[in-house]
């Protein structure tokens, strides 16, 4: 649910659902880049190096500058006077570049949502040595090409800016692309400065995005008409749909550029990363299911032996598999270091019993029973009387079943392959109770 309460904007339920869907897709793409480790310093430098001066040139071009990205780079880095252009455009390029460099530093303040302090600091840099930098106006202004009339006095401006800041702080958990659009449009609606409002609003959008791990967006001069029209719609009727759509499109485009940089610099493949993320989710379900199984088996063994002064310990091994191991087992390949847990049961007057549950790939019977779905299974082994190897697998010593597994993505449905070759489906409680009873029965059948 998007919280637009307190803003001048409306969004119908259908549009909201589409926006939420799009934002989730964007967040997934950013998350994939992060988890892959492709957002390295080299990747980021490569992307920002390509886009830095284009961003300055295009933002200033919306306000009338005639400098190209290449001319902007010469003006900023070498201080070269570009003939045939208004010298003011060169000053604007240098000033905006300084603001954007500062923006990257402000973005590191991850716990500080956009506020008036950050805005006025960026605006002062945008204006450079021009009068009024970082100061809210105290006189009426007219927005070119808009019917909307912004607040006229300093007090009116300040009141609306305080509402803008309050919304930002109250809604800091909203996704960055949504915050970027709303804070941008609302700031343009208030128009708090005599000059530099558009460049500052675009900088605020990018501050939001960069702070959340997104690349900055570039609204180009050729898109000025659409940009102005979308802002006008939000001004006149509080209809934020067109502006949200523009910002989300630009965010998606910027992400594509960053992904391409990651491909060139780090060999990043988003399709493969998406598959690997899904595999990681399945792996976590497996881990959680085994942990619950261990605790439940322990519970049911104690329920049977505590009155008879028996003792039981169930030792689970931390991280017996990693993601690569899990994927290998799904492909029916053997992995090392696969001990899952050891059950040790003692009852006075009877022989001590120890069983190791270890992890391997699914037996062909289980594999075919589950529709040729690969995955890990639990198997049982007992202490080797010869001493080496320490544990040996024997079907006859397995408690209740010789193999135990879950279907991928279904954590509470266990499939047990029994000694007679049949396969039974049970939930965690049922399978844990049967294994616990079987272990205790084995102890009671032994001699001390």
Please tell me about this protein's structure.
This protein is an alpha+beta fold and 448 residues long. It folds into two domains: 13-268, Fic-like fold; 273-444, no CATH class. The chain is 54% helix and 11% strand. It contains 14 helices and eight strands. The protein has helices at residues 13-36, 41-62, 69-78, 87-106, 116-127, 154-170, 176-190, 197-211, 224-237, 241-266, 270-305, 323-330, 364-369, 428-444; strands at residues 311-316, 339-346, 353-361, 376-383, 391-393, 403-406, 413-417, 423-427. Strands 1, 2, 3, 4, 5, 6, 7 and 8 form an eight-stranded antiparallel beta sheet that branches. A hairpin with a 5-residue loop joins strand 7 and strand 8. Helix 2 runs antiparallel to helix 10 (241-266), helix 5 crosses helix 8 and helix 6 (154-170) packs antiparallel against helix 7. The protein is elongated and about 100 Å long.
